[in-house]
Design brief:
By secondary structure, the chain is mainly beta. 14% of the residues lie in helices and 55% in strands. The protein is elongated, with a radius of gyration of 24 Å. The model is unreliable at 1-28 (pLDDT under 50).
Length: 150
């Protein structure tokens, strides 16, 4: 009887511990919020006073999703700094607040495309685009810098 009681307590303790280890907050984020990759593409512009069009294709992970009446929501803020070939920094060159809502569940990777127009004051040469992304639901931020050429 003693052995069974000890084994019974051991099994009960193991099952209880295992249950608590597997329970977690459904709103918890397992992955660090970060920009995992970014491509910057430039195209010449045929509009007057516009020298180039810049597309910034970004992959983000670790963002928080909020349920709403409309579906699932992700709220982000993006700030783009441009660094010229003379190392002058144009802080907050572009600021974008975005709310993405969809009925379906979000994938683990969020793909965002940002678009800029550079006027004729931006001459041919190498530039750096620094993207600062903030997940507005969790308050966490990430920065990624990429070189591009006009």
């Amino acid at each position: 009887m003693r052995v069974l009681l000890k084994n019974g307590i051991f099994v009960f303790t193991t099952l209880t511990l295992s249950f608590f280890l597997n329970c977690k907050d459904p709103d918890a984020i397992d992955t660090e919020f970060k920009i995992v990759d970014m491509d910057v593409l430039t195209l010449p512009s045929y509009e007057e006073n516009i020298n180039a069009e810049v597309y910034c294709l970004t992959k983000l992970v670790g963002f928080r999703v909020k349920k709403s009446n409309e579906g699932n929501e992700v709220q982000m803020n993006f700030t783009i700094d441009l660094i010229t070939s003379r190392m002058d920094t144009l802080k907050s060159f572009e600021v974008v607040d975005t709310l993405i809502t969809q009925k379906e569940k979000f994938d683990n990777v969020l793909m965002i495309e940002l678009y800029l127009q550079l006027d004729s004051t931006f001459k041919e040469g190498k530039y750096l685009l620094r993207l600062n992304a903030t997940d507005k639901l969790s308050g966490r931020s990430s920065t990624f810098t990429k070189e591009f050429e006009i």
